[in-house]
Write a structure and sequence with these properties.
Structural class: alpha+beta
Strand order of the largest sheet: 2-3-4-10-5-6-7
Radius of gyration: 20 Å
Strand content: 5-15%
Number of strands: 11
Distance between the termini: 17 Å
Order of helices and strands: EHHHEEHEHEEEHEHEHEHHEH
């Protein structure tokens, strides 16, 4: 049964901004953070939207593992590249600054790349690549994260869920955007399952003895203390080509750490050897390409659109009435939700009330 209540986008945007500011995030930064979270919900990616507002951002600010004021340092810069240090501030704020810089550089020089070290969770990766796609540019990003994925033939969580994300501009109403983890299921999805009281699909999480785990709440505990790991894309072992997901997760780990001069794998757990909270020190990388440096933006967009339309028009499985391309379902979710508002489950409603009351904010909700 769907227990969600819809709240207008304007009200939720205002609340999120005020709440972030209540925990000392500067107004301009709070506006960025609110928009990134709401963009997740606009696309139907509820595991990374308001669902994560309190447990990932507010709770970490309170705990001291995320700094509300983001002191961005330019460590190194060339005409086509930049390395930043976020100094454990808001990853969303540092990433927004990075994309502004890279878009400008790519338009001037044809392409540009950047990396950020000592950062924190930067929201959905597709937000950053879509910033470029809206300008007619191609973009790629990735980020490392707390160890969750076991290497092929392994059972120890070594790699983060490490999304490898692309946005390509098209001549349609929405860009092509492929934004997904390099594991079968990401930690955020399991957090969502746990909050909703749902089981995690069998075969996506492996225990230390090699058996499947499905209890979502238990999985979250086991991922932290090393008793479980996520399977990479493809699955466990070679038969379903899990080595491919393992390989891509490793690519993201290396680029996130080696380009930025940052930390990696077991250094990103968020706890020290005694189990005490510590900074996450995540790394992100970004590349932006201007099609005008190749065959032209409009030519690129038309070719991309022609390819996507041909894919959707191809012969369909009789059991399904349509074929989708990446970014299309998210666009359709937005069309459905733009007048309804943000869907908030019971658990998220509880979080919002808790934050509102703690800060003494004057918001009245229908829950």
């Amino acid at each position: 049964m769907d227990d969600r209540i819809y709240v207008s986008w304007e009200v939720m945007n205002s609340f999120l901004i005020d709440a972030f500011m209540g925990y000392n995030v500067p107004k301009e930064d709070a506006e960025i953070c609110a928009d990134v979270l709401l963009e997740s919900d606009r696309r139907g990616i509820e595991s990374h939207g308001c669902n994560r507002f309190k447990p990932i951002y507010i709770d970490r600010i309170i705990k001291g593992t995320l700094l509300p004021v983001t002191d961005i340092e330019i460590v190194k810069e060339t005409p086509t590249s930049v390395v930043m240090d976020a100094h454990d501030g808001m990853g969303m704020v540092a990433s927004h600054k990075m994309m502004e810089v890279l878009i400008e550089k790519a338009k001037k020089y044809g392409m540009a790349g950047g990396a950020i070290r000592n950062s924190t969770h930067y929201g959905i990766a597709g937000y950053w690549t879509d910033m470029a796609a809206k300008e007619g540019l191609v973009a790629i990003t990735g980020t490392n994260a707390r160890p969750s994925i076991a290497p092929t033939y392994g059972v120890e969580n070594m790699l983060g869920t490490n999304p490898l994300t692309f946005s390509l501009p098209t001549d349609e109403e929405f860009p092509f955007c492929i934004d997904c983890a390099t594991s079968i299921v990401q930690r955020g999805r399991i957090e969502y399952y746990a909050r909703e009281g749902r089981k995690t699909p069998a075969g996506t999480v492996v225990s230390r003895d090699g058996e499947a785990m499905t209890d979502s709440s238990e999985i979250l505990k086991a991922l932290v203390d090393g008793r479980a790991a996520l399977a990479p894309l493809g699955g466990i072992g070679d038969e379903l080509a899990g080595y491919k997901g393992y390989g891509y997760a490793t690519v993201v780990e290396i680029l996130s750490a080696a380009l930025s001069g940052g930390q990696f794998m077991k250094a990103l757990t968020g706890v020290d050897e005694e189990g005490n909270p510590r900074m996450y020190h995540l790394g992100h990388f970004f590349f932006v390409v201007d099609p005008d440096a190749f065959n032209g933006r409009q030519n690129f967009k038309k070719t991309a659109g022609d390819i996507l339309r041909a894919l959707r028009a191809s012969k369909k499985d009789p059991k399904h009435d349509r074929i989708y391309t990446a970014g299309e379902k998210e666009y359709l979710v937005w069309l459905d939700r733009k007048d309804k508002g943000v869907p908030l489950s019971k658990s998220v409603q509880k979080d919002i009330i808790e934050v509102r009351d703690a800060l003494g904010l004057d918001y009245k909700f229908d829950f």
